[in-house]
Amino acid sequence: MARPTPSHSRGDESRSEVITTRVTRAERVRLEQRAAAAGMTVSAYAAQVLARGQVTVETRPRSVALPPDLVAEFKRIGVNINQIAHALNAHKRVAEGQLAAEFADFMRVLLKDDYLKRKGGAVASALLKSASRSPR
Prior knowledge:
Oligomer: single chain
Distance between the termini: 94 Å
Strand content: under 5%
């Protein structure tokens, strides 16, 4: 008895479209093994997986929009820190503890936002305690 030819039709619709993709050697072997275990050709197996299977999508962490007043405070603190850096680079004196005070201010602002508090609250709290212990 002759081997039946595989059907390329699905109901009333004929499979006429071709999709080409590249895979690694290991992925190809895995596909061939899974197709063989299912008693299918690689093409039929891949078509079924594409039509019915699940796809895992890797996503990047979404960006978070911070409140404008919080962003303004961060900018103000950044300007202050930049001015301190310029003074230090010009070998000018900077009041003792001024940098630590700006850093502590930055950490207090950071902890105002709920999202930032959840993401880095423990670290920020520890750093804030450490900065508040340093002389001003």
